[in-house]
Amino acid sequence: MTSDTLRPDAFRDECGVFGIFGDSEAANLAYLGLHALQHRGQEGAGIAASDGRLIRASRGRGLVGDVFGGQELANLTGNMAIGHVRYSTSGEASLRNVQPFVVRYRDGQLAVAHNGNIVNATQLRDELEAEGSIFATSSDTEVILHLIAGSTQETFINRLVDALLRVEGAYSLVLMTENTMVAVRDPWGFRPLVLGKRGDAWVVASETCALGLMGAELVREVAPGEMVIVDGDGEQSLRPFPRRPRRACVFEHIYFARPDSTVFGRPVYDTRIGLGKLLSEEHPIEADVVIPVPDSGVPGALGYSQESGIPYGLGLMRSHYVGRTFIEPSQQIRDFGVKLKLSPIKSVIAGKRVVVVDDSLVRGTTLRKVVRMLRDHGATEIHLRITAPPTVGSCYYGVDTPTRDELIATRMGVEGICEYLNADSLGYLSIASLRRSEGEDAGRFCEACFTGDYPIDPVPEGARKQMPLFVEDSPTEKA
Ligand code: SF4
């Protein structure tokens, strides 16, 4: 399990994407790649593979290991594959939400895996429907497919460019025809995407941890606005879109990405250690022990401990065996949720003044329970430290977030939140310190959920989320 199942009130990344071209074990390697990206989405997983003539796909709800536990991979033959892990943002874990989507249009088959959110999807859909398009789903990714199919350009690549020129928003896409793989990142560069090589095979993935697992070398980040095309003639790069200021999602560094990844050119672990150090400088406190909210708070707590000199301790144990069935059980059982997932180690916290480091504070429901648990087990003081600024805005660029009203920092100030959480003190990292951590890239990140400064104008609240597809009927599907 990953941090989101532990903390249902946290921000959730929506998806991870993967692609490989030029390896006879393509589907098996995609399976490994998706395992490494599992933290980016646990509602469903899918792989599409091509043998040069036909694209076959398999996808299902649940974790990668559950979806591909049987004969599914054996049917996915060919030397090219793309894969996807996702969250449902609609609250319904619909199978039809699970990508890659595979369609057949006048030029043959096309498979697509998308991480991001198309901000003008509703408007584009209205236009397409007015022109006669019939939509099978309400997904923003399907809008891209319709735009490709409807383009009057002559080649697939030109049709793809034509389509994406009409799209505003966040996309790290991996697409596949029967014989070509394309990786493309929006001009703002909101979501990560890297290019690697494994022997003669080309690999693309949301994060470098997927490359490391299979022994692939990182070649480089796919640049914002870049389109990488891989086919039998090799790899080529295009920059077909108007340039935009880079706005990589700073939350990838704070929370989403795996600590062993390098994202946007920076090691995530080192970045989080640095955030903890800056937090200690900014909000020092006299205390006996620094503990993380595991797992995602660990590097920040280590950094805080290193900078402050206060010993680090593992004051909370996390159960990695709590399945998704415990995420939204009945109200009666839900109250046990945090206890199921986190258990205090009394010898670390009893009689101690405890600094608790976490990487974000969204609704505050989990931390409130953590504070109560620590007090019940003898902590004498609890000082909360958050390695991010107060979260005051929803995300429109591919992250599943609560509405603005649900964010605790929009309803009360630091003192009020501290009181609500029943902590002795509360300190957030400031925007200034966050920018210090960004070094020479300061100002080149999206920080909109902390500042309200949105790079692309958000759509109205009711239409903000990645649009859900229609409700699903069966637990698995072969396409
Ligand atoms: S609004 Fe927040 S979560 Fe969304 S892309 Fe910007 S920094 Fe990332």
General description of the model:
The protein has 479 residues and is of the alpha+beta class. Helices cover 29% and strands 26% of the residues. The chain has two domains: 3-247 and 466-478, Aminohydrolase, N-terminal nucleophile (Ntn) domain (Glutamine Phosphoribosylpyrophosphate, subunit 1, domain 1, 4-Layer Sandwich), CATH 3.60.20; 267-445, Rossmann fold. The strands form seven sheets. The chain has an eight-stranded antiparallel sheet. A six-stranded antiparallel sheet has the order 6-7-8-9-13-14, covered by helices on one side. β10 (194-198) and β11 (201-205) form a beta hairpin. The longest helix has 15 residues, at 268-282. The chain is globular, with a radius of gyration of 22 Å. Iron/sulfur cluster (SF4) is lined by residues 190, 249-251, 395, 397, 399, 446-449. Residues 190, 249-251, 395, 397, 399, 446-449 line the site of iron/sulfur cluster.
